[in-house]
Amino acid sequence: MIPADRPVQRPSTARLLYIDQNGDIRQAPRSQLHELLRPGDLVIANDAATLPASLHGVHVCTGHGIEVRLAGKPSLAPRDAQRFIAVVFGAGDYHTRTEDRPLPPAFQINDELTLGSLTARVERVLDHPRLISLRFESSPDALWRGLATHGRPIQYAHMSEPLALWDVWTAIAGVPVAYEAPSAGFALDWQMLAAFEARGIEFATLTHAAGISSTGDPALDALLPLDEPYRIPVATEQAIAAALCEERRIVAIGTTVVRALEHSAATFGSVAAGESVANLRIGAQTRLRVVDAILSGTHEPGTSHYQLLQSFADKAALSRADDAMSSAGYRTHEFGDSVLIERDRRSYCGEARSKIRAEVFPEMQGLVERRTPRILRGFALAPTHVVQESNRLSPARRLVCLRD
């Protein structure tokens, strides 16, 4: 496969490799995504906007130049507005491969970092010399101004020209909490959303603080993905409950959506509205509870993203897909081509799910029978009567509609 080296989100030549539930493979233009989905599918995308998370500055104690790449935070709560987890490199920039970047100076607790107009202090050195937690000493308003003035999007050596912030914002970008772009969403634009509606495909969003994809260090890359905060709107929770009860598919746009939905289901017993932190590692042994299909970029074997794809398709199917993409010259990385993978049909437990619905969930079943179908217009807007009626159900009754 060929690295995509131009920041074009939706080139006319973008391709899509489709792996269906039987493991069969075919190829199509990515612009035909809506034709590969089914009427009634619920598509969920990550609406996080991308921060200018690369900051160059100085380790004050030694005077050495550093690059700080913000990579995560404890939560999305205001109390954590100034606290981040960061990956730090020595002097240099994205023109040098991350694998070849020097280590930063040895950090000590309370070391001062000057990053443009911003000052930060090291709170902890974590599980690797490059990985630290830090706290900015600026007010939240000053922090935003400093990031906007001095920060740049994180990028890698395969991209020759510097990225602008608008290059890494999806068409549906909202709150700036991602550290790298939730780039599967680059496939979406308003024309695609209109095509979803015309085909009877529902659409909703969540917000997930997508982390970094690579550090260049095998030991540190093995820790990825880091814990990632997310927020699920009430309307998205309700849309998912209705889709599950009606036996309609849920399609995730990107690995971050899968992480958020599956973490919520595993933690709370159902997809629950509100904020939490995704800390599950999803792979071949993971039993998916919510998501039926994923649209993703092309990923290399051994990466955490590729491991997540193994929860949808077995190694043989993914290997055939890799061979097909290599032969056809698919483009990789964030501005590359895409794959659409349906969950292997052998992973379903329909009998157990039907028993739960029949025995414990008569109220939601009645609601679904009375429900007038309607496409979700805008982001995470559930039909009002569904929200009102299902809110009267207890959480225990709502959660059992979830797939076993």
C-alpha Rg, in Å?
22 Å
CATH topology of the largest domain: QueA-like
How far apart the termini lie comes to: 37 Å
Helix run count? 12
Secondary structural class: alpha/beta
Largest sheet: 9 strands, mixed
Structure, described:
The protein has 404 residues and is α/β, with parallel strands linked by helices. The protein folds into 2 domains: 2-50 and 162-347, QueA-like (3-Layer(aba) Sandwich); 54-150, no CATH class. It has helices spanning 33-36, 140-150, 190-199, 218-221, 234-245, 255-268, 304-309, 315-328, 350-360, 362-370, 384-391, 395-399, and strands at 2-3, 15-19, 25-29, 42-46, 49-50, 54-59, 64-72, 83-89, 112-115, 118-125, 131-136, 176-178, 202-208, 228-232, 250-253, 274-278, 293-297, 331-332, 338-342. The protein has a 9-stranded mixed β-sheet with strand order 3-2-19-17-15-4-13-14-16. Strands 6-7-8-11-10-9 form a 6-stranded antiparallel barrel. Strands 1-18 form a two-stranded parallel sheet. The protein is globular. Residues 349-361 and 366-404 have low confidence and may be disordered.
